[in-house]
Amino acid sequence: MYSRAYRFLVALPPILWVSLFLLLPYLLMFAHSFWTVHDGLIIHHWNLSNYATLFQNPLYVQVLFRTVRMAAAVTILSVLLGYPLAYFLSFRAGPRKELLYQLVIVPLWISYLVRGYAWKTILGSDGVLNGFLQYLHITHGPVSALLYSPFAVVLMLTHIYTPFVFLPIYASLEHIPRPLIEASQDLGASPRQTFFRVILPLSIPGLLAGATFAFVLSLGDFLAPLLVGGPSGTMIANLVQSLFGAAYDWPLGAAISVFILIVTLALLAITQRIEMRWSKRWSLE
Amino acid sequence: MTTAPPTAAPLPSGATLLEVRAVSKQFGARQVLKTLSLEIAAGEFLTLLGESGSGKTTLLRLIAGFEQPTAGEIWMRGTRLDILPPYKRPVNTVFQQYALFPHLNVSENIAYGLRASNTPKNEIAARVNDALDMVRMQEFAAADPARLSGGQQQRVALARALVNRPELLLLDEPLSALDANLRKEMQFELKSLQREVGIAFLFVTHDQEEAMALSDRIALLRDGALEQVASPREIYARPATAYNAQFIGQTNLLRAIIREGVADCGSFQFPYAGKDASALFSLRPEAITLAEDTPQPADPVRFSATIRQQIYSGATELLELETTTGAFLRARIASRKPLSGSHDFVFSVRDAIAVRE
Questions:
Q1: Could you tell me the pTM of the whole model?
Q2: What is the ipTM metric for this complex?
């Protein structure tokens, strides 16, 4: 057994780290969310006016709903892309598995900004996609709606978060003991039945983890709307950024941040509970 | 959903159920099965016995449909099986690690095959109930597989396969994950269950004692080819090859020179009708007795030997003998007081079985 003093000393650095760089900033943010700004000064007077603004001002409500819709769209699209990809790699790729896995992972190593600018060059008025569509005579002039729209933001975020969705799904598929698949076939289940009755239920924890990643990360994203979103593609994080910047309304920005944080934590708590319950029941140890 | 083709009335016991016709299987450069042919009769308990790597599990997987033969065909009651996907074959498997579905409880696991074939709900309930009774797992109907012991999981796996009423059940070393005591108990249960349901069992094991205890017939595999297919009694009493004789039970392999109807082993000779050549004989240790014991075996062959070791094991003991020409033999005799020095021993000519090398 280690002495109390030793244990205290060992625990001190991480406790200090977490308090200084995590708890303290959050506390400050939390406090700010109850203050107000007057004539460019932060008034330390506690009230709920920021939260009232957030839920009553049509601008914030509209952007908030748009953000949730876009994050949901990104989540659904990433799952629709990531699940089949993970399924193919885990069950059908054979000896090419390792290579394909690396190819899915590689985009994660490329700067977010680079990928953002790549989409700009693809979607822009004189971009690759418009040029291609005109070359095929599908359109006769550049389609300006491609870039600077919620569509562009969802496209870019889907591109960026699909690997994040792919990874946990792939891990959960890889963890399904292969004899279970054989047992299902052996008992007369067609490949379709095997998928829906064995593979899908056993990959739900991975699916949930992946979907949570995509949703939570999209919800707080501000770079994609900044780069390819335009005014119609603005998301809640862009408002926070401007409130902390040019608009100089830290208290309102803090209130929005606190709200996003609560939504995110609630979501994480729920999905984690579901995951825990399922995997606990299944552990065959 | 298509599943097993509708089967006609059950075959009379003893009629050929499954035919493996000249099946070969190649994994890369390695030939795992070498033009192997085997027939399984309706209602019989056939064991595929062999060391690991002998190809026994591969043969089972070929029949179940998890592997495709490189050459040859598999037929079952006039239907060619090897061209069907696993889910369309009228066979079921008990897997080595049971492979119970962790997200389904015991009843749901057992009902899985019936649900896949869209059996009516009330029939599923009745048959699952019967299956639970059969393996005495009624009280665990709603339990998750993860909460069951090895033996209980084993029973559920059996019920899950048998509830579909296959004509052939494939068992891939189903007892190997159990500890020794439970194994013996499950052997007994498995055998009585097989008699009760009358379904043909194709049982894979590397344990020769288990094979002897359970089987109607044993198919002994070695390096992807069949060495001998016979009843346990016959395979023990009349092994076809030296490998068989050593793999199933213990034996003494005697090298003899045959000349003019006499087999000469050096320190003793016995009559053997065969052409002049070198030959190998298997002589089980229990076939050798002390010459002073009565009654004498028929057609006795006498020899004298020095007792080098005496290993006591309860009702019997094993003697290690050195003959006058320096060859070593083992004899299993009824226990007695310690022996030493030179003694006369005797065995019956009928117990010396000529085996292929």
A1: 0.83
A2: 0.84
